[in-house]
């Protein structure tokens, strides 16, 4: 978020048209879940993470739809990476992603209409979820299908994990329920604020504060060990 | 750094790629580019058309069921339903041309076993506390008496304003009231044209009243005009 | 008619602010709000694209997509991407100074979910052309308002002493939460 990063991310982070270094599949999956978590580390896909995270069921639905789109589009893009001309690759990626998103949207409308209604425009909005286009450009378009799928599964699970942390916290605190089941009995006065928009920002903020605290602590421990 | 510049991530390749892609002399021919895009476009289109056809029955069935449930509820489960369509500002028995059946604006007439009209149900909307409140409103067009209402969509404050949907006692206060027009009050009332609002959700309650008044106001004359013309 | 348009405009601008209440366009909101100038300029560019999108989407829905609603998402995203390209070319040609200042932010607009969301909302709410334009204006000015407010707060934060653990994003999100809460206070203004 530094100024130079915002003004010239291209210069700060040169775009290298080379494949990511080879790694075992296990690592490709793990990277997305932990070290390179799309939400918590890369801060991608914040819009859906905050917008629909007031219920665990929403998070599960959104996570499933995103994983479906991510895995399918990464697989297809990786398969076709040698066929797609570089000049139109972004347009083609968006086309492929939008197709899978629409399929997910239609299937959800047909077989899970209630969920589809609560998620509303956020299902079709998966098209502009930076995670998917980002992975297509940075990874899937440059490696074989097996690695692309492994990476997509990892990133998808990482997204789901972040979503579920947010959802669980907001639903439990904000409505006193988990997956719709009351937890604390009738005397619990739910902290309604948490399931409303400001609660989304707050929960995410608390999550980043916790991670910042953890990062600082690790840094301090390291310094101590070196000294 | 990698975590910080994420906002530039997706377009980032786009911006430099313009310069990078133009530099290689060999570049792909525009015919090939067009072919690729056209091919994927056609592929995407046909794949979606196929999925759409497979899922359409289920989607329509649900949408139809949802409307039907709401209509049945607000009219007190009539044995027979009649549907009129709004074209321009007039009602008609035939659906408007060129509009998906689900998108047409409709008026439902509930008819009892003896063939008598029990009431009509329409969808209407008005601003609430946070955003639009959309209701299915059932009323008797000759007397203006309400047969019921059902919330179709609302985003009022959880725990307060959303009681207009979740509090069944609130909905039951409306049945039998005369909406010519309906008014709200904070205290318990037996007046036929006044309804008690929800404590802590006065604006949301008033939004419900507003929608109901709007429904009766706009649809009663429409139906009367339709019947005057012979009900074609 | 007028009151309906006013409700659409003000509820989109304040009560259901795209950024602060609906979580749309957060990438720009968190990424580009380090300076007031760039904040409101990006907001203005977004507003322009939003209005153009509203008009195009109305035409698409009216004349092209009625028979094939399943192509909506694809059609919208293609139209938005082309619009952004056109806007980019126009600004480059006629306002080269502004182009240099906006530079990298312009292509960002394509992936701004606010634009696609506007197209989708306009479709599901069945707005006509005028309602659509008013909706887009409200959404765009709402984005501009949020971006500018956030940028002005963050300009102050630059010189503040912030605990290390809040430096990355934590504090910014807490501020966003407070702003969102403040905007909730506008609720209820639609029903006098």
Series of secondary-structure elements of chain C, N-terminal to C-terminal: HHHHHHHHH
Adjacency order of strands in the biggest sheet of chain B: 2-1-3-4-5-6
Number of domains of chain C: 1
Order of helices and strands of chain B: HHEEEEEEHHEEH
Beta-strand level of the residues of chain B, as a percent range? 15-25%
Number of helices of chain C: 9
The major pleated sheet of chain B works out as: 6 strands, antiparallel
Q: What's the number of helices of chain B? A: 5
Helix fraction of chain C, binned, reads over 70%
A few lines on this structure:
The complex is a heterotrimer of chains A (227), B (232) and C (192). Chain B is built from 5 helices and 8 strands. With 232 residues, chain B is an alpha+beta fold.
Structural summary, described in words:
The complex is a heterotrimer of chains A (227), B (232) and C (192). Chain A contains ten helices and two strands. Chain A has one domain. With 227 residues, chain A is mainly α. Chain A has a two-stranded antiparallel ribbon with strand order 1-2. In chain A, a hairpin with a 2-residue loop joins strand 1 and strand 2 (181-182). Chain A is flat and about 60 Å long. Chain B is an alpha+beta fold and 232 residues long. Chain B has five helices and eight strands, in the order H-H-E-E-E-E-E-E-H-H-E-E-H. Chain B has a six-stranded antiparallel beta sheet with strand order 2-1-3-4-5-6, with helices on both faces. Chain B has a two-stranded parallel ribbon with strand order 7-8. The longest helix of chain B is centred in the first third of the chain and has 46 residues, at 30-75. Chain B is globular. Chain C is mostly helical and 192 residues long. Chain C has one domain (2-181). Chain C is built from nine helices and no strands. Chain C has helices spanning 2-15, 26-31, 36-64, 72-94, 96-102, 105-108, 113-124, 129-157, 170-184. In chain C, helix 4 packs across helix 7. Chains in contact: A-B, A-C, B-C. Chains A and C meet through helix 1, helix 4, helix 6 and helix 10 of A and helix 2, helix 4, helix 7 and helix 9 of C.
């Amino acid at each position: 978020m530094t100024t130079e990063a915002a003004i010239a991310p291209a210069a700060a982070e040169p775009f290298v048209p080379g494949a990511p270094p080879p790694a075992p599949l296990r690592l490709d999956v793990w990277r997305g879940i932990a070290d390179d978590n799309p939400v918590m580390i890369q801060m991608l896909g914040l819009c859906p993470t905050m917008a629909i995270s007031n219920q665990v069921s929403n998070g599960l639905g959104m996570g499933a739809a995103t994983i479906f789109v991510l895995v399918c589009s990464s697989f297809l893009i990786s398969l076709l990476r040698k066929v797609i001309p570089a000049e139109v690759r972004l347009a083609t990626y968006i086309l492929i992603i939008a197709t899978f998103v629409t399929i997910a949207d239609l299937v959800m409308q047909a077989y899970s209409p209630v969920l589809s209604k609560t998620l509303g425009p956020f299902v079709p909005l998966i098209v502009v979820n930076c995670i998917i286009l980002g992975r297509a450009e940075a990874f899937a378009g440059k490696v074989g299908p097996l690695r692309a799928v492994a990476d997509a599964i990892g990133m998808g699970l990482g997204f789901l994990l972040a979503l579920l942390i947010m959802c669980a916290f907001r639903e439990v605190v904000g409505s006193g329920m988990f997956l719709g089941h009351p937890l604390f009995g009738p005397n619990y006065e739910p902290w309604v604020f948490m399931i409303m928009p400001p609660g989304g920002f707050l929960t995410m903020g608390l999550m980043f504060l916790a991670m910042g605290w953890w990062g600082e602590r690790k840094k301090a421990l390291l310094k101590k060990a070196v000294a | 750094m990698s975590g910080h510049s994420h906002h530039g991530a997706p377009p980032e390749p786009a911006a430099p790629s313009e310069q990078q892609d133009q530099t290689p002399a060999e570049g792909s021919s525009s015919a090939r580019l067009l072919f690729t895009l056209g091919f994927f476009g056609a592929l995407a289109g046909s794949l979606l058309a196929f999925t759409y056809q497979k899922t359409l029955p289920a989607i329509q069935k649900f949408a139809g069921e949802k409307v039907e449930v709401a209509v049945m509820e607000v009219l007190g489960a009539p044995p027979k339903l009649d549907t009129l369509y709004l074209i321009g500002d007039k009602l008609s028995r035939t659906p408007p041309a060129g509009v998906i059946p689900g998108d047409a604006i409709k008026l439902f007439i509930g008819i009892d076993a003896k063939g008598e009209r029990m009431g009509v149900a329409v969808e209407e909307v008005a601003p609430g506390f946070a955003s639009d409140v959309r209701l299915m409103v059932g009323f008797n067009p000759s007397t203006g008496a309400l047969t019921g209402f059902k919330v179709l969509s609302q985003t009022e404050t959880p725990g307060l304003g959303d009681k207009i949907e979740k509090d069944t006692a609130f909905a039951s206060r409306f049945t039998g009231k005369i909406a010519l027009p309906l008014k709200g009050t904070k205290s318990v009332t037996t007046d036929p044209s006044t309804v008690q609002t929800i404590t802590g959700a006065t604006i949301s309650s008033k939004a419900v009243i507003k929608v109901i008044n709007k429904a009766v106001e706009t649809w009663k004359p429409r139906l009367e005009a339709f019947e005057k013309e012979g009900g074609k | 008619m007028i009151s309906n348009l006013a409700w659409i405009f003000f509820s989109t601008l304040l009560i259901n602010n795209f950024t602060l209440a609906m979580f749309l366009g957060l990438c720009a909101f968190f990424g580009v709000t380090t300076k007031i100038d760039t904040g409101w300029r990006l907001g203005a560019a977004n507003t322009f694209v939003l209005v153009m999108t509203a008009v195009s989407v109305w035409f698409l829905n009216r004349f092209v997509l009625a028979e094939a609603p399943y192509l909506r998402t694809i059609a919208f995203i293609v139209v938005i991407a082309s619009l952004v390209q056109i806007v980019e070319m126009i600004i480059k040609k006629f306002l080269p100074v502004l182009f240099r200042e906006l530079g990298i932010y312009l292509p960002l607009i394509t992936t701004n979910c606010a634009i696609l969301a506007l197209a989708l909302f306009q479709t599901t709410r069945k707005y006509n052309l005028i309602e659509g334009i008013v909706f887009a204006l409200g959404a765009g000015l709402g984005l501009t308002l949020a971006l500018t407010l956030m940028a002005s707060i963050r300009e102050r934060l630059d010189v503040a002493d912030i605990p290390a653990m809040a430096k990355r994003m934590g504090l910014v999100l807490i501020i966003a939460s407070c702003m969102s809460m403040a905007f909730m206070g506008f609720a209820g203004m639609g029903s006098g």
